[in-house]
Design goal:
The chain has 13 helices and 14 strands. The protein is α/β, with parallel strands linked by helices. The chain folds into two domains: 10-244, Type I PLP-dependent aspartate aminotransferase-like (Major domain) (Aspartate Aminotransferase, domain 2), CATH 3.40.640.10; 246-365, Aspartate Aminotransferase, domain 1 (Alpha-Beta Complex). The chain has an eight-stranded mixed beta sheet, with helices on both faces. The chain has a three-stranded antiparallel beta sheet with strand order 7-6-11, with no helix packed on it. Strands 10-12-14 form a three-stranded antiparallel beta sheet. Helix 1 (10-20) packs antiparallel against helix 8, helix 2 (28-41) runs parallel beside helix 8 and helix 3 (52-62) packs across helix 4 (80-87). The site of pyridoxal-5'-phosphate has 14 residues, from helix 3 and helix 4.
Amino acid sequence: MSPPHLDGDERALLLDAFDSNWIAPLGPHVDAFEEEFCAYTGAPNSLALSSGTAGLHLALLLSGVEAGDKVFCSTLTFAATVNAIKYCNAEPVFIDSETASWNLDSQLLAEELQRCAANNTLPRALILVHVFGQSADLDPIVDLCKRYNVSLIEDAAESLGATYKGKHTGTVGDFGVYSFNGNKIMTTSGGGMLVSSNKASIDRGRFLATQAREPFAHYQHECVGYNYRLSNLLAAVGRGQLAKMPDKVAHHRKIFEIYRRQLSQHKGITFMPEADFGVSNRWLSVINIDAEALGESPTDVRLRLEESNIEARPVWKPMHMQPVFKDCKVVGGKVAENIFTTGLCLPSGSGLSPADQQRVIDAIANK
Ligand SMILES: Cc1ncc(COP(=O)(O)O)c(C=O)c1O
């Protein structure tokens, strides 16, 4: 559905790393990848990591989240967002989406923060997800987080290259986290990046991600650390991928436009909206299906595509509907539930050829 697409200098860079014998979770390609990532996104400081989940975990720790703290988060997301909260033994509270961007509803957030402030149970942090590559409406959320002293962590795992009022998603809050998992818009097979305008936080994150080894020759440790750094080999692949990011965003957007042009004529098919405050990277092309109008449910369409060896997938099942998080509080929830029950993610990788995309479109059209 969104397979890796390597068509640049990845192979040459990887061989350079291999031949240099920097086969380690540090090295010149890691340093260069961090620098180039800052240049692309405009983030002042970055830390290359073994996964986006590691980045979320570190961002929570660096925000001071401790056991028993509340952490708010978008309900329409992939489980990794919430798992990181659970690693801290903190308590997730899920917030519903709004319809313009499918991301966190700032009105619901305002109401819940006001309630929490009144009984002294404010959260320590908020993880705001930019789902399927589209930015949330950041300005009101930033204001609320400042007013209530809540650390804002942007989960930009899916939204590298997307912007909000001209700024890259992930660079607006206190922390931004990106994923280079195999299905993302760019990949290192597995990997992630943590960014922040606060250099001291990124330095501390680097220390925690390197087993919290104190600067002594004799392996001294004064707190618990993690083994979260990115390998130099994978950073080399990441540099090749990063150089192609503008092309990848353009290609993903084009794929979406072709689907829209050709499938909009079918009664019952609508498309994930693009809010006017940003530019989506269209990581995945997502449609909504009105089963009655189309005469087929999203599951019917998905299974029919599967028969033609075409992979489509449901939209993320909201976190408040997940058995593992069933005891967590949710604020609202109906908008995300509706997106889940009507949504379908179509093949969207930047390597998708026009012929392959036409095959998908024909398969959807020809019942
Ligand atoms: C919204 C979201 N957050 C976090 C992650 C976790 O990233 P990773 O797989 O790099 O740990 C992913 C994807 O995998 C994701 O889609």
